[in-house]
Design goal:
heterodimer; A: 385 residues; alpha/beta; Rossmann fold; 18 helices; 46% helix; B: alpha/beta; 12 helices
Chain lengths: 385, 281
Amino acid sequence: MDGGKFFGAFRACSGISDAVVLNHVPVGCSWGAGMFKTVSNQPDIRHACTVMHEREIVFGGENALKEALVRADRLYDASLLLVVAGDVPSIIGDDIEAVINSVSLKKDVVWVDAAGFQGTMRQGYESALLSLADLMKECDRIQKSVNLIGLCQDDYKAEADIKEIKRLLNGAGISVNCVISDCTSRELERAPAAELNVVIGQGYDLARHMQKEHGVPFIEVGYPYGLAGTKEFVDSICQHMDMGYDLEKDLNTEPFRKVYLNLSELYGTPVSVIGDFHAKSLADFLDRELGFEIEVLSSVEGDPDQFEQDVKGSNTTMLFGSSFEQKIARDLKIPLLRFSYPVFDQVCIYDEAPYAGIRGAVCLTEAIINAIMGFGDKLENLTMV
Amino acid sequence: MRKFCIYGKGGIGKSTIVSNMAVALAEDNKAVMVMGCDPKADATRNIVGRRIPTILDAFRNNGPDQMKLEEIVYKGFNGVYCAEAGGPEPGVGCAGRGVMTASEMLTRHGAFDQINPDVVIYDVLGDVVCGGFALPLRNGLADDVYIVTTCDPMAIYAANNICKGIKRFADRDEVFLGGIIYNGRSAINDPSIVDRFAKKLGTRVIGGIAMSGIIPKAEIRHKTVIEYEPDSEIANGFRVLARSIYGNQDRVIPEPLSDDELDKINEDIDELLKERENVAI
């Protein structure tokens, strides 16, 4: 299920950790996007809303935006205001640029045109990153440094995954200059200092823009799930930077040996996977490293009804997706492992338990086995209800 | 309750016709209510004698819960109840949504229950530009629609477009075309042109209004013709038209004309214009 352009833009903007995001939308849109974000980091409420009601729809939302800009400027201790304009202002033709220019504010303001009906969540993300690119400044190159583009703070396991990816790259002698978008405005401003942009699934438009404007080349990589996926990830970056580094020596297969019997039993398990760009990389891990059979692999931009129909018509015994897949999993009485946005019925607060990288491969394998082993009890409860 | 709406090209005389028909029906001891659905909010000015505050003014100033019925419905000449939807300033917001909001507010604050009118007339913006201005065509708000047109090609073109909107809702049994109102105030005054247009649509000309100098005189004084010159021929014309529409039972799903069919009507108008020029020479 795709949240549309507004959600993508909101996610990109809210990743700037010292900025205030001002959603120019009716309250429901703002609440929805914010809820998915704050579920695992509840004090991080840096978003405000113009709360467009019927009055703003009929008479225009420019006054409400003006008032909200002034208030947000006064109330939040932040240097940057990011205005995300959603469906309603786009339909009624609010002149966002003119409103921003009409007020004198202490904070810098960037705005994103993000009418949900104009495109997918991914397009909203891409377009917001391009708007944020205006904040970037020319700066001296930092050798052996990369930017990671395509990540969001509200991705499931984002904090732990980014920590693990940084650990792996640091081990290879590479520093992470900026994670886009999970960075401060200062880090974003200095993003052009990186030697290479590493695009993970999305953010291509920004990477192309930075190549053209700042001369930062980019490569595209899959999400580093599993040992093989992680090795490919690190190898691609090292290769591009002419760094002779072999991750092989860091690969520790000991934890997998501990569950050898479980893994043998699970070999050939038919599963289905749905998600954003993470899905393909996860399916590769399940297929190549755990020996699962991928019955259905689908993108969130596809038809959700078709996915449900395909899964129900397959031999799927385990599902990998987001919280939205609960119903299919319940209908089929099979376990669901959440890995893709949005996850709003679980929290992930431990930043040492990633799904990405070498440590992530262990955590992911453990989570899969436990989801299957514990499922008998859950099923009993489900049946009793 | 008899409910109908009047559509037609901008400036065609809708408000003149609506206000005079409303006053005429009130003379027949009917409780009449007029709702103006144009953001310009001037449909009822000649009934009340001045512009009245609009429903959306009250909505903006007091919010949806605090407004009072007496702030949105005003009594005019012959006791006709008048309400104006109003709307945003030109170029901002959504006037179409405004019509919908105003209509909801009118119902929510008991206008129909408390006033219990025998007749409700909707006076709508010149064209069905979006869903909001099609509101009177939906949800059973009106039984039928009457379109005002002159012999001018653009007026006929607009009427044909409006029929496309009516057809959409008539196919769903929500509203029907009741007929065409002929306004003789144009360069060519030949009722047979509009007769033919009406027949092609599948309906008829239910009545007409002749050109009259009394109309602008009355309107300059913010009065209806019936109030200003009650015994005039034109005042009687409005009375006849009002009664025809009130009693009309012939309702059709219109069949809008194709561009080619409209061009044929335009050729006839062109011929008449040439004839007139020749006579003048």
